[in-house]
Predict the structure of Caffeoyl-CoA O-methyltransferase.
Amino acid sequence: MSQQPTDWLGDTPAERISKLLARLDTKLAASLSPGDEAFSLLSEARAVLDGMDGYMEQHSTPYPPILDEMMRAIDTTEWAAVGSEITLAPNMCAGGYEAGVLCMMAKMCGARRILEIGMFAGTTTVALALVPEVEQVVSLEYEPFLRDFAKPFFERAGVEDKIDVRVGDARETLKVLHDEGLGFDMVFIDADKGGYPTYFKSILDFGLLAPKGIIVLDNTLYKGTPYAPHEVFDDGVAGISEVNRLARTDDRVDVVILPIRDGITIARRR
Ligand SMILES: C[S@@+](CC[C@H](N)C(=O)[O-])C[C@H]1O[C@@H](n2cnc3c(N)ncnc32)[C@H](O)[C@@H]1O
């Protein structure tokens, strides 16, 4: 079932390039002879790019099987019928490979308490909760339907006691977490892109991040649009460009952007 607009750029810079190369292939076919060297060069470039994600996934530790169940449920849900104020779509799910990357980060920084901003169907939430050393995942989500959608999967994975879903606007919930005096070793920001600068600042200003803790921000390359703009993709890019600038200039953190999927930033508190 496709629930994406037809002019969709792809979910990552690599998918965007792949689509561009496919279009270039079609254009060349109309003007060059089939034996032209341009076709073999293009075909090699496409093979390198299109094979990369699958190869990386096959050679990484398999992600928990419950994620496949959840992703099947995501793909067969009629999201438009949910009637959410937020436009929900299957490609909001970061997928199994990225869930594995997050779990590796949690293990590497010894995270016990994790805050997630933007849960969607809960695949990243459940994957992080399944890390044995993780004691609690607090996940902030605007849409109440998603809490009910995810609950049976959390129960089936046996981690419902580790997960605390807070429904509401994350801008407000972050203030509540501050009032409750909570602190986290790892924060994963993956909600509305326009909210990223506020989320990033609030976490540091409210003291929600433990010393040496990490903030992980998803989609910080945003299909390449911060540096290679595209007319169909201005939604959210301002928030991403702003948070990338903020993180780089905030002397409370060291920052690196990794070209994983749609770009993942790690900001580690000094
Ligand atoms: C990209 S999805 C999260 C994906 C999830 N982390 C995963 O990988 O499966 C973004 C989620 O953020 C939620 N969201 C958007 N704006 C929000 C807000 N202001 N407060 C809380 N959640 C919000 C959306 O409803 C959506 O479920």
